[in-house]
Design a protein that fits this description.
This protein is mainly α and 331 residues long. The protein is 76% helix and 3% strand. A 3-stranded mixed β-sheet has the order 2-1-3. Helix 1 packs antiparallel against helix 2, helix 3 packs parallel to helix 8 and helix 9 runs antiparallel to helix 10. The longest helix has 39 residues. The radius of gyration is 25 Å and the shape is globular. The mean pLDDT is 82.
Length: 331
C-alpha cells in the first residue's frame, strides 16, 4: 500500500530544561558566558594563525578550519538555547526544526571527519618528516580541507531525509533544547525503525570509523616516537599530538554514546550540553595552553599590544607637554 504522509504538525515546542525552572537565569548566564568565550577564543586562534608567519603550516591551517567550524557549530544551537532559557521563544517552525537538525548533524559529522584528517597530518609530519612539506603542499591541503565538509553534509543527509519523511500528527513537544534526530523520531506517528537504523549507520560511518582510524594512526605515531633517541625529540612529537588527542576523546566519547544507539532518552540533552557548549569552550584553551608555538605567538601579540599602548600614552604625554610649553612661551 502506498504511504500517505499525514503530518499535521506546523511547529515544535522545545522543552529545554523546563524541570530546572529555578535555575533558568543562572543557566542562561553560564551559557551566554560560554558562548562569548567560545567565539572570542576561537577567533583569537584564527587571528594568531593569520598574523604569525611561523604558524603558516598545514597543521595550523586545519586548526583554523576547525575553529571556524566550532564557531558555526555552537551558533546553530546556543542562541536558541538562550532564547528558551529566558522564555522568549520556545517554539520552532516545522521546516526550521529540520533545517536546524540537518545543519547541526552535518557540522558535527564534518568536525568528526576533520579530526581524523588532522591526525593524518600529524602522522605524516612525524613518520615522514623529510617529505612532509612536499606531500602537504598548498594545493593538496586545500583539497583535503574540503573533503570533511563534503562527507559531513552528504552523510547526514540520509538520516535527516528519512526523519523528515516520518509522519508527525500529534505530540509536538521535543524534550531537548534543539531539534535532533532521536527526539524527533520519538514523536513520529509512523514507524521510525528505518530512520533509527540510518541514524545508527551514519553515526558508525561518521564517528566510530573516524575514531578507530585515529586510534590506528596514534598507535603508529607512538611506535615512531618511541624510536626517537632524544628526550627533547620525543617531548616535541608528543606535544604536537596531545591537544588533538584530548579534543578527539571528548568529542567522540559523547557523540558515540548519543548517536550510535539513538534512543532519545531524557539524559541525551545533558550529554548534548557537553559537545555543544562545554567542548567548544574548552577547545581554544586546549589548543592554546598545550601548544608551545601558539603560546609563543600569543605572547608576541600581547607584547606588541602593550608596547603599542605604551607608545600611544607616551606620545600623548609628549604632545601635552609640548602644548603646555607653547602656552608658557606665549604668556
Amino acid at each position: 500500500m502506498r504511504h500517505i504522509n499525514t503530518t499535521i504538525v506546523h511547529e515544535f515546542h522545545l522543552l529545554g530544561f523546563a524541570h530546572l525552572h529555578s535555575f533558568q537565569n543562572v543557566l542562561f548566564c553560564a551559557v551566554l558566558l560560554a558562548y562569548i568565550i567560545c567565539v572570542s577564543g576561537n577567533f583569537t586562534i584564527i587571528m594568531l594563525v593569520r598574523r604569525d608567519p611561523s604558524l603558516h603550516s598545514p597543521m595550523y591551517l586545519f586548526i583554523s578550519i576547525f575553529t571556524v567550524l566550532e564557531i558555526i557549530f555552537a551558533s546553530v544551537t546556543i542562541p536558541k538555547l538562550m532564547a528558551i532559557l529566558i522564555h522568549t521563544k520556545k517554539t520552532i517552525s516545522f521546516f526550521g526544526c529540520f533545517a536546524q537538525m540537518y545543519t547541526f548533524n552535518a557540522l558535527g559529522e564534518t568536525e568528526s571527519f576533520l579530526l581524523a584528517l588532522m591526525v593524518f597530518d600529524r602522522y605524516l609530519a612525524i613518520t615522514n618528516p623529510l617529505r612532509y612539506l612536499a606531500i602537504m603542499n598548498n594545493r593538496f591541503c586545500c583539497r583535503l580541507s574540503v573533503l570533511p565538509w563534503f562527507l559531513g553534509f552528504i552523510t547526514s543527509f540520509i538520516p535527516s531525509l528519512f526523519t523528515f519523511l516520518l509522519d508527525f500528527c500529534g505530540p509536538n513537544e521535543v524534550d531537548h533544547f534543539f531539534c535532533d534526530l532521536a527526539p524527533l523520531q520519538n514523536l513520529s506517528c509512523s514507524n521510525p525503525s528505518l530512520s533509527n537504523m540510518t541514524t545508527s549507520l551514519a553515526a558508525v560511518l561518521s564517528t566510530v570509523f573516524p575514531f578507530l582510524t585515529i586510534m590506528v594512526y596514534y598507535i603508529h605515531i607512538i611506535c615512531t616516537v618511541l624510536k626517537i633517541e632524544t628526550l627533547e625529540g620525543k617531548t616535541k612529537a608528543f606535544s604536537t599530538c596531545s591537544s588533538h588527542l584530548i579534543v578527539a576523546s571528548l568529542f567522540y566519547g559523547s557523540a558515540i554514546i548519543v548517536y550510535v544507539r539513538p534512543r532519545g532518552s531524557h539524559y541525551d540533552k545533558f550529554l548534548a550540553l557537553i559537545y555543544t557548549v562545554i567542548i567548544p569552550v574548552l577547545n581554544p584553551f586546549i589548543y592554546t595552553f598545550r601548544n608551545r608555538e601558539v603560546k609563543n605567538s600569543l605572547r608576541k601579540i600581547i607584547r606588541q599590544c602593550i608596547k603599542f599602548s605604551s607608545f600611544k600614552h607616551l606620545k600623548k604625554w609628549l604632545k601635552n607637554m609640548e602644548s603646555t610649553c607653547m602656552q608658557k612661551t606665549t604668556v
